[in-house]
Prior knowledge:
Layout lengths: L4 E4 L6 E4 L3 E3 L5 E3 L9 E2 L9 E5 L6 E5 L2 E3 L5 E3 L13 H11 L36 H15 L2 E5 L10 E4 L1 E6 L7 H14 L2 E6 L5 H10 L3 E4 L5 E3 L2 H9 L2
Parallel strand pairs: 12-13, 13-14
Antiparallel strand pairs: 1-2, 3-4, 5-9, 6-7, 8-9, 10-11, 11-12, 14-15
Helix pairs in contact: 3-4
Amino acid sequence: MAESVPVHCPACRREHTYSPLTFPCTCGAPLTVPVRKGARPEELRHHTWQESWVVVRCPSCAREGEWPQPELGCPCGTLLRLPVPRPPREAASGPEHAAAGRSKGRGARPAPPGASAAPARTQAPSSAVLRPAFRPVTIRTSRDAITAAAQYLKWLGFQDVLAVDGRPASGVDLRGRGVVAQVDPSTRPSTLRAVECLWLNSLSASAQPVFFSLAGYAHDARGRGDDLRVPLFVMDLTGTPQPVNDAADDLIRMGA
């Protein structure tokens, strides 16, 4: 298991502990995306797909592949990008071998973890509900983000969770028995209006609202989510939602 590292949020000055994620390399060996100790995290205001991947060399086969950039959602609503060490320079005696390794590994982004994959970091329910480890869906497109959120809602215990066709004006992307959810895959923090609209839709449907965002939440959106008891989650590119308010923590603990 990779060693956890301390992370200091520059926005609210809270201290967190981050456990680096592990994925299966194409050679079959577990590969951990490292985090540079002591480095200042970057406050992520504009989330772009191109900048969300980092090059990491597999210690077993020496291939260089692109893997999700380590990110951490702070409860204050700030999304943090964690710096990783640069791959070591190639040995002068073997540049041809190193180049071959890069050509095989470059662009080989991880597939969704399967039965043979090394387990990714997940949120363990604190007490009330015991459930198996959540198996995330790697996010490469906005559709993947909706799929990952649907899987998470099912993991929480909601049934008959289905994606809404197209992009409805209501902003609701997922509906299930007793739940409505919105998934914001944009590169800007989710807005107060979006949180309020989801809450209003949940009232009309007599359902639990749940919000998922890839870029975090604006300060007023986070505050309104707290006031309305709307569970707010942020997702990184591994497809693992992280709670950012008490309502989200309670939903994880108690389930559907």
